Amino acid sequence: MIKSLTNWLESRTGIGSLTKEALFERVPGGARWRYVWGSTLTFAIMVQFITGVFLWMAYSPSASTAWESVYYIQNEMAFGWLLRGIHHWTAQIMVVLLVFHLVQVVIDSAYRAPREFNFWFGVILLFITLATSLTGYLLPWDQKGFWATKVATNLAGVVPVIGGDIQKVVVGGSDYGHHTLTRFFALHAGVLPASLIGLIVFHIYLFRKHGITEAKPTTKAGALYYWYFTALCLLGLTAASYVFRESNPPWVLWIPSALTLATIIRIAFLHLKGRSDDSFRRPRRDGMFWPDQILKDAIACFAVIGAVLFLVFWKGTELTSPADPSQPYNAARPDWNFMSLFLMLKFEPFQGELGLILGAIVVPSVLATMLFMMPLIGIKKIGHWFNVVVLYLLIGGFLYLTVMAFKKDASDAVYLEDVENAHKQAERVKELIVSNDGIPPEGALSLLYSDPLTQGPSLFASNCASCHAYGYDENGSPLDGNGGLMQDDQSAPDLKGVGSREWIEKLLTLEHYQSNQFFGNTKFKESSMAEFLEEEEIDNEDIALLSAGLSAEAKLSYQSDLENEDMEFVAEGFELLGEDGYSCVDCHKIRGEGGKKGPDLSDYMSREWLIDFIGNSSHKRFYGEDNDYTLFFDVTISQSLIDLHQQIVQKLTEENNKLIYPYIGPNWKAHITVGQIKNKNYLDKFLNKKHKIEATVDKLSYIKYENGLHTTLKERKFC
User: Fold this and answer.
1) For the segment 690-713, what is each residue's pLDDT rounded down to a tens digit?
2) Domain range for residue 475?
3) Measured between alpha carbons, how far is residue 276 from residues 233, 261, 281, 413 in Å?
4) Do 551 and 585 fall within a single domain?
C-alpha cells in the first residue's frame, strides 16, 4: 500500500528523484564546517517565517494598539515571550550568519564565474535582511523603536532633489505616525519576506545549477584566512564584552578573551611550523551531502537554536514604555547592526547638509558597489587578494565603530538617564495595567498620562525645576526631578523629601535655612524666621521634637508607621509649636489658631496643602503680599502677558497649527495657568527665549523651549 502511494506520488511529482538528487550530491573535497553557513541561514529564515506567522496572529498594526498587542504577546499569551524572543534573537543572529557566509564565499572564490549572479543575489539578501530588521524595529511602537526609526527615516530626506518625496513614501505621508507603522508592517510582514523567498529560490536554483565550488588545491597560507577572520571576530566580541563588563557576569568577558588568545596562539603556531608557505596540501577525497555534510549542517543548526534560546533566557526581549510623540527620547538609537553608521555620521567630515549626504548616502553606496564589483575585481589572483583585504577591512571597521558607539553611549549621562527613565516607565505602565485590571480603550499611554508617579516628576522638571531643585547628584549639582541636572540656577528650596522629618529638621537649622538648599537665594534669607532661628538657637533635641510634630501634619504614608510608634514624641513636638513652647503660633496659624504673618502650617506640606499652595501661592493663607514671586501661578492680567499670548498664537499660525500634545485624561485638571512667570525680569527673560511651538491655538498651548523648559498656558480671564 505504502509503496503504491509513493510510486503514485513519484509519477505525478518526481519528488523522490529530486530528493535523491539533493541528498546524494557530491561534495568536492569532502564535507567541511565552513559549508554550514548557507544551511544555517536557511534554517534561521525558516524559524523567522514560522515564528513571524504566529506573532502576526496576535499583533495589531495600529498606533493605538501596537504596543498593547506586543504587551499581550510578551506577558499574557501562552509562551508568547518565548516566541517573540526566538523571533527577535534569530533576526540578530541571521545578520551574523550572513556575514560569515559572505566571508566563506569570498575566501573560497565562490563568487567567480559562472557564479556571479548567485553572489549578487546573496548580497541583495544581506540588504533585504537589514531592511527587514529596520522595519521590524518600529513594530513594538515603544519609545526606543519609535524615535530610532524616526531618526532613520529622516535620513531619507537628505537625498538631493528627491529626498523629500522619498521620505514621504517611506513615512507614508507628511507626518510620522500611524501610517508609518502600517507601512513598515506591510514591508516587514509582506513585501520584504516575499522578496526574500523569491531571491532564496533563485539563489538555491543557481547553487543547484553550478554545484558546490570545486575545491582546488589550496595553499597552507590560504588556509590561515579563516584563522585570521576568526581572530578578528573574536577581538570585536572581546572588545564589546569589555565595554559592558560591569553590567554582565565575568564569563561574558573571559570566554571570548580565552578564545581570542587561543586563536592567536594557533596562528602563531602555524607560522612557526612553516605553515605559511605556498606548498599545496594533499587533496581531500570527495564526500556526499548525505550523510557527510548534512551531519555538520544539523549540528550547526542545533548550535544556532541553542544560542538563540540562551539569549532569550539570559537577556529576554526588551519592551520599553509606549511611544509618546510628545516626549522626545534622547536615547534614540538604531539596532546594533546600524550603530556603526550612526557613530560615523557624528564625525566632523559628515556634519552639515553636504556631510550628511556624504555619510548617509555616498559612503554606504560606495561600499555596496564594492561588494557588487567583487566578482569582476576578483577575476585575477591579485584582485581576489584585494577583495579579501577589503572585506576584512570592512568587517573590522564595522566592529570597531560598533564597539566605539556602544562605549560612547555607556559614558553618556543623558543617554543613560533616558534609557533608565524609559525602563522605569515601562515597568510603571505594567504595574498600572495590573492594578487597572487591563488596558483601557484609550490605550496604555493614557495610564501614564493620568499617573501621578509618572507625570509628577515630569511636571516638576518642566514647571518647577527652573527654581526648585529635587535632590543633588554625587557632585552636589541640583537635579530637576527627572534625574537630570537643573537648566537654570536654583533660586528656591530643594523639595526632595519635603514635609519629612529630615527636611523640616534642616529647615529649622539656621545654617541650612540660609543656604542655597532652602532660602539662600530668596528674600526670606533675612526674614523674621531667620531672626527667630538665630535668636532662639534651638537645640538638636527640640529640633527633632518640632520636626516630628510638624511633619505629622503632612500625613506622609512612608512615615505613618514611625508616627504611630512615636505618638507621644509627635504630640510633645506639636506642643512645642504652641505658646508654651517656641510660640510658632505667634506668626503661623496651626489647626485654625494663631497668627497670620507666616504661612498656614495646618496640614503643612500635605497633599491638600501643596495643591492649594501651587494653585494659589499668593493667597493670604500662605505668603500673601510677602510672596517672593508674586506672579507665580495666580497672575493678574498684564499687557506683557497679553503680548506673550499673541506671540504664541502668531507662531502657531506660522507653524500651520501643528498639533503635538499629549492625551489629556478625564482626571486631568485644566486649570494649569502660567508657570514660572514670577516677576518682570523673569517675564522679560521668558519672552526673549527662543522657542518651538508644538501645540494648539485653542484653549491649551504646549510650549517646548530649547533648554528643556516646558510651560503651559490656559486661556482664562487673565489671558
Assistant:
1) 333 333 323 233 333 333 323 333
2) 450-492
3) 21, 20, 12, 49
4) yes
